[in-house]
Design the sequence.
């Protein structure tokens, strides 16, 4: 049996975001049960529902609306999320699951007793369904497949819509716009900063660093406090951007923040400029103004929700579509520094209008 890391759903405080008219608060995630009308205190005696999503940060965050829907639909269940182990610090922010099963990829896992419900948020093929079938759940929630009822899989659906459509087909209401996360327990080390995030897991998703530097330099000249962030192994890339932009060494935070700190940076940031990677999805969750550059993966599938101060940039007619390629996708390379700066002006103006509208309401 895999080690199960406990967390109490409902312990976090909803951080719905500025774009939806909710004020920012700075209450911490307590880590203790806060029973509500539709939630029971965590108990090992409750029936278990397990949701499988053993992928990366952005992949997990596009499944958040479906997880919120499951939480409401299964208030009496103990919901376990089986996901990639390094994502464990995200569990308190999801505010939808009770515990976490850390996985090293898509590998089998077990519980002491069969779960009542198994939810396939990973895919629709045998690699994921076989793992969940081995748990012998009473009920299966997923896409149509061998022994699995549900809707057919369609490749071109927006990811948040895909998983909400799936749970709706099983009688569970779901809203793909419900992307919010709970407020991080830690505070941002740079509240109000503008985050420039030049990294990406694959070269096809990486806009040239000299262009990120040009954007960072222009924003700094406008009075922004620019901070350059990055994931594991991206410190050299971040340092290159900082140096080219003429920023002080203190602007470099790449490969120097854990997930809760990164979430806090995003939640309290003034602006995010990044590629199509996990930090973009954090900006959607916290309604932080963002300009996101897309290459091999279309924004129509992986882009921002309908609401919120976000702008996706890409030249779709040039897309090659090789997500795992080593070189930037032509759709991404065609995006210019001037286009990014114009989009920055647009999202910040939209954010100001929203704040003004709320002030008059």
Sequence:
């Amino acid at each position: 049996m895999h080690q199960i890391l406990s967390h109490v759903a409902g312990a976090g405080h909803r951080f719905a975001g500025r774009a939806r008219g909710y004020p920012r608060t700075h209450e911490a995630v307590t880590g203790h049960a806060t029973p509500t009308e539709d939630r029971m205190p965590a108990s090992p005696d409750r029936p278990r529902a397990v949701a499988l999503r053993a992928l990366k940060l952005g992949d997990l965050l596009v499944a958040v609306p479906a997880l919120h829907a499951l939480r409401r639909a299964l208030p009496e269940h103990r919901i376990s999320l089986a996901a990639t182990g390094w994502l464990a610090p995200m569990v308190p922010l999801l505010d939808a699951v009770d515990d976490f099963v850390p996985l090293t990829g898509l590998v089998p896992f077990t519980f002491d007793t069969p779960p009542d419900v198994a939810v396939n948020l990973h895919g629709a093929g045998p690699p994921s369904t076989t793992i969940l079938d081995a748990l012998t759940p009473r009920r299966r929630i997923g896409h149509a497949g061998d022994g699995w009822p549900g809707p057919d899989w369609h490749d071109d659906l927006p990811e948040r819509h895909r998983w909400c459509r799936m749970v709706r087909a099983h009688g569970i209401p779901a809203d793909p716009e419900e992307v919010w996360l709970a407020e991080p327990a830690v505070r941002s080390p740079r509240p109000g900063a503008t985050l420039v995030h030049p990294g990406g897991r694959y070269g096809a998703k990486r806009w040239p660093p000299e262009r990120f530097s040009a954007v960072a330099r222009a924003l700094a000249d406008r009075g922004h406090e620019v901070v350059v962030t990055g994931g594991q192994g991206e410190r050299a890339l971040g340092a290159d951007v900082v140096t080219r932009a003429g920023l002080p060494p203190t602007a470099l935070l790449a490969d120097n923040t854990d997930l809760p700190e990164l979430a806090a940076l995003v939640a309290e940031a003034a602006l995010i400029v990044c590629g199509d990677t996990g930090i973009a999805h954090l900006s959607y969750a916290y309604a932080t103004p963002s300009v996101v550059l897309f290459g091999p993966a279309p924004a129509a599938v992986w882009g921002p929700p309908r609401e919120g101060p976000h702008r996706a940039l890409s030249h779709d007619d040039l897309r090659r579509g090789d997500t795992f390629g080593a070189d930037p996708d032509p759709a991404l390379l065609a995006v210019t520094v001037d286009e990014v700066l114009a989009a920055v002006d647009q999202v910040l103006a939209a954010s100001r209008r929203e704040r003004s509208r709320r002030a008059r309401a």
Observations:
- Residues 194-360 form a domain with the Rossmann fold fold (CATH 3.40.50.2000).
- The CA atoms of residues 180 and 285 lie 4 Å apart.
